[in-house]
């Protein structure tokens, strides 16, 4: 059921929600949270579709905030709020309200959203694109327990990670971090199978992909070893190679769907590691509403600190040679000089 409201108020929107629920025979509210999506008109459809799919797992009231740009100075002084209320099959398993803000009211979206929040329920704010540099200080972000951004949608995603680290507040998270959850789980499980010490890591993936940088920072932060970031044609992450004193561990995914896990002394195994869509990512983020300390620690490790050892790797093979060798870390383990070069950045990082 859809209800269109033109030049309306938050009070009228609440009344329309109650009326719509009664019309379809579900007067009770059975939603677990409020999801606020802040986006533009161009990306509203995709974000709303992903939220609708995620609502099958997390029934929620979804508020889509679309700030419309006024074309003339006269229109900018005239505030107007239009709303579209969706209940029933048109809104998944919850309720959806699309808010279009015109004029000065677009600068005060929190005053429109606040009366529409579910009482005594958590609030999650998601920016599919154009997230603020400090989500916690944003007027809408201040209403939420969790704030979800996506650096992959930024023009300069790697630089954006540094800004996210400087402005991090408990409750912040990013879909670029969510994308590497299967990778982190698989690598942790692989290390649990052997009793070896990791000496170096190489993370291979697309250039300017924040998920690759976050995975490299997570490994460097947790293992306290040098991590080399190399580039490939993608899609996304393509390989992680860990050099251990028991032999190399390689997780290689060339096609974005099926990966191969290789551990020294064990047969190779095929691993399902497909690239997930936005609905799966946002559904995962809604499963936990507490601060993600692991993400915070990896983010604060820093992109610059990760790159600080690059000048000292001048003797490393060229990019074409690196891609031609299935497991370059194995050859590195056999070369004492290369091993000494790889360990040098760790000593400097420890000194700092």
Describe the protein's topology.
Blueprint: E1 2-5, H1 10-23, E2 33-39, H2 41-54, E3 60-67, H3 73-76, E4 80-87, E5 95-102, H4 109-113, E6 123-126, E7 146-149, H5 157-166, E8 172-174, H6 175-178, H7 181-192, E9 198-205, H8 210-223, E10 227-231, E11 237-244, E12 247-252, E13 258-263, E14 269-272, H9 278-285, H10 293-301, H11 303-307, H12 319-324, H13 328-334, H14 336-351
Parallel strand pairs: 2-3, 2-6, 3-5, 6-7, 7-8, 9-10
Antiparallel strand pairs: 1-4, 4-5, 9-11, 11-12, 12-13, 13-14
Helix pairs in contact: 2-9, 8-10
Structural account:
The chain is an alpha/beta fold. Mean pLDDT is 83; it is low at 309-352. The strands form two sheets. Strands 1-4-5-3-2-6-7-8 form an eight-stranded mixed β-sheet, sandwiched between helices. The chain is built from 14 helices and 14 strands. The relative contact order is 0.11. It starts with a strand and ends with a helix. The protein is 36% helix and 24% strand. The chain has helices at 10-23, 41-54, 73-76, 109-113, 157-166, 175-178, 181-192, 210-223, 278-285, 293-301, 303-307, 319-324, 328-334, 336-351; strands at 2-5, 33-39, 60-67, 80-87, 95-102, 123-126, 146-149, 172-174, 198-205, 227-231, 237-244, 247-252, 258-263, 269-272.
Most strands sheet:
8 strands, mixed
Q: Radius of gyration in whole Å, from Cα?
A: 24 Å
Beta content comes to 15-25%
What's the total count of β strands? 14
Total DSSP helices: 14
Which strands sit side by side, in order, in the main sheet? 1-4-5-3-2-6-7-8
What is the ordering of alpha helices and beta strands? EHEHEHEEHEEHEHHEHEEEEEHHHHHH
Query: Helix amount, in percent?
Result: 25-40%
Distance between the termini: 60 Å
Task: State the shape.
Answer: elongated
The average pLDDT score comes to: 83
Q: Which regions have little confidence, pLDDT < 50, spanning 5+ residues?
A: 309-352
- Which class of secondary structure composition applies to the elements? alpha/beta
